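FAQ: What does the model actually see?

It sees only this:
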Amino acid sequence: MKPTVITPDCADPEAPAVFYRQATGLELHPKSDGDFAGLTGEDGLFGGFQRVDDYQASTAGGAGQVRRPR
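And it is asked to produce this:
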């Protein structure tokens, strides 16, 4: 199985879409709006970001902490 779309929840879909657009060169999906922003490549939709009201970032696994190999 090959994943074709990854769509994380977020508070502002446009912010990560702009970042990943610049990082990957993918194009913003034409139906992107304030509730969903998607990125597309030549082979179709690559990823998207969807707005969730009252979104709170996860702290599971020490998010935001640098982990160094032992």
